[in-house]
Amino acid sequence: EKTVQYIKGLQTGDGSFEAYDGHYYLAASLGQAGFDVRSFKTGNATYVDYLKTLTIDEGTSTGELTKWIFTLSAIGEDATNFNGKNIVQLLLDKQDENGTFSGSGSDFTGATAVIALHNAGIEIPKQAELRSYFEGLTYQNGLYMAPWGSADIDTTARIVRALKILGCSNQNPVIQHALMGIKSTQNTDGAIASEWGVSYDSTAEAVMM
User: Around 166, how many Cα atoms within 13 Å sit in the side-chain half-sphere?
Assistant: First the structure.
């Protein structure tokens, strides 16, 4: 309850939450915990009121669209018809012939797009192509590579989640390699550690696989 009150206290007068690029995640976390984020407001503006002031169109990036879909699904809004926009279709329009999402800039974002669509209850097109693409990616010691060129726990966890959505079981060889790779980064206390030390984000990503 204290955590919820803390997050609610971050809401500003325009309805957004005071966090660098994090208002999506704060709102989504509350929604997934069962709170009616649409009723939260400071002054006269709710979070939904704030979202309606933002511009979203064909030029919106893949990463930004996935955040929208994640958040709207979590707070009980329809991502196929929000403020006159079909945000799901905007994301689907970015899908290439090989199933990946153009302009995503990273396999992390591409995997996140799959997860976001799944969470919104959307049938994902080109599933066989997507699965083949993710299974064919280069990895190092079981971990997939981040855009900056090093093995990355978060990217690996997201790809494993995407592969499971696309029909792969835990017995899939690629997933087995990934699970072993992530397990190799686990400390004796259970936390996941990257090359920079213990990462709470990476630990959470591993739990969600």
Answer: 26
Long-range contacts of 48-57 (CB under 8 A, 24+ apart): 48/15, 48/75, 48/77, 49/14, 49/15, 50/14, 50/15, 50/16, 50/23, 51/15, 51/82, 51/83, 52/83, 53/14, 56/85, 56/87, 56/90, 57/85, 57/90
Q: What is the pLDDT of residues 91-150, one digit of tens each?
A: 999 999 989 986 666 888 899 999 999 999 999 999 999 999 998 887 777 787 766 667
Distance CA 125, CA 24 (A): 25
CA distance 154 to 112: 11
Phi-psi region of 131 (alpha: psi -120 to 50; beta: other; left: phi over 0): alpha
